[in-house]
Amino acid sequence: MSTVADLTVPEELRAVATNLRCEHSFPVQPPHGSLLAPGPCSRCGVAWAVCARDVPDRLREPLAALLEVVSSVAEYAAERGYSTNAQTDATLSVARAVNGGAADV
Ligand SMILES: [Zn+2]
User: Fold this and answer.
1) Helices 86-98 & 9-21 angle (0-180, nearest 10)
2) How far is the CA of 26 from the centre of ligand 1 (A)?
3) Can you give the pLDDT at residue 26?
4) 0.85 cut: is pTM over it?
């Protein structure tokens, strides 16, 4: 598992898109987890606390697609030494809200 501090902006956006698209499966059997503290998703590795379970199903794919598009734009800009723009910053705020504002993705 990585933390947001370890990720570039494009990587963070893609990680949240993956979080939105995954049909999460959290282990609740020791040693991987418990009912009170499920372990990370066995499919994508996201932590239970930030699995975006409160995002309605109808919004998951459109949000994931938006995050990926902006991720590509941000990656293109970063490769050319441009700073992030307002679109990227706003989308990053959405991604972090989806992610519960937590540091683990
Ligand atoms: Zn998952």
Assistant:
1) 40
2) 8
3) 95
4) no
- Ligand 1 center–CA 54 separation, angstroms: 14
Give residue 18 CA to ligand 1 midpoint distance, Å.
8
Q: Is 103 contained in some domain?
A: no
- Expressed as residue numbers, the domain containing 83 is 4-98
How close is the Cα of 55 to the center of ligand 1, in Å?
14
Q: Is residue 14 part of a domain?
A: yes
* Mean pLDDT, the chain cut into blocks of 10 residues (105 residues total): 73 94 94 94 91 90 96 92 86 88 54
Alpha carbons 5 and 64: distance in angstroms, whole number: 21
Sign for the pseudo-dihedral over CA of 72, 77, 79, 84: negative
pLDDT at 3: 57
Give the chain's domain count: 1
